[in-house]
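User: I'm new to structure prediction. If I give you an amino acid sequence, what do you actually give back? Let's try with this one:
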Amino acid sequence: MRSTIITRTFLFMLCGTIGLVSCKSKEEKKIAPPSGAGGPGKGNNMPIRVEGFLVQPRTVSEKLEVPGSIIAFEATELRPEVSGRVTQINIREGQSVAKGALLVKLYDGDLQAQLQKLKVQLEIYEKTAQRQAELLKIDGISKQEYDLSVLQVNNIKADMELIKTSIAKTEIRAPFNGRLGLRNISMGAYVTPATLITNIRQEDQLKLEFTVPEKYSSKMAAGKNVSFTLEGLKNRMSAKVIATEEAVTEETRSLKVRAVVQGRSPQLIPGAFAKVEVDFGQDNNALLIPTQAVIPQARFKKVIVYRGGIAQFETVTTGIRDSTFVQITSGLNAGDTIVTTGLLSIKPESKLQITKLN
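Assistant: Good question. You get back a string of structure tokens that encode the predicted 3D arrangement of the chain. For your 358 residues, that looks like this:
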């Protein structure tokens, strides 16, 4: 009886041991990775298959298209220098006038009366000075008396010049050859220096104004030629840069440029929108790569370079671009091979296999 119990106990323990060993073997099989398993390119004998692009020097023409505006060569608002009542208006709205043409005359009756009074006084003092000059020759008067008479003559002449200047301020004349705008006054109106009479623009020559990004500021020197077109016109016109702003605008990081339009066309009107094209010439050693090869990051841009079958991430600086290619100004050399496909699955030092090289 006792022998039977011992036998049964032994069998029970043997079955338990076999079960534990079996479960442990299954768990180890479940946890153990398959042979050759691992992350892409790490601990894996199978490289990632990708397509590559051989970086070679190419010829590229760097052009920039920006919006611009046509502006008058000279433009100003005409306002009176003094207050007064309008007695004459010679403004023909929308018409061209010559420099110095009288446009508006203000009342100057009181100034004319003062000028006439001074003319009479001047005549009297001049005659007195002439008589004293004769007396001085025969020592009939002292030199001091004669000098006082001459001084009075000069004072009267100075007063007359002041009156003439005041009279000139009652005349509003065209400051340059140009086209008048709409007049804002009528005959008999009382105007002050704050009153806008009309506008005048010089339109026999026009300017082109536009802005360029900060990185092109050093290339926009005076004398550079640019071309532009207007909406609805097929003819391309040219302009020559005359000046740029002294600094880059902080808000937009752009530089304002002004150019003189070459020639004159009836279609050119101040304020018109223009599409400006700036040609910075050709670069025969530009390094261009497909745009999809560039990996944008928070502060930098990177590309994956294929070197000896290994992926290496390089930081690059980009230049001009189009819909297909982008220029690399630093970070790559001619002869490098970059990866253009499977970029998201590649990690640094991953093994690569080039299946197609463009």
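You can read the tokens as a compact description of the fold. Here is one thing that stands out. The CA atoms of residues 11 and 17 lie 10 Å apart.
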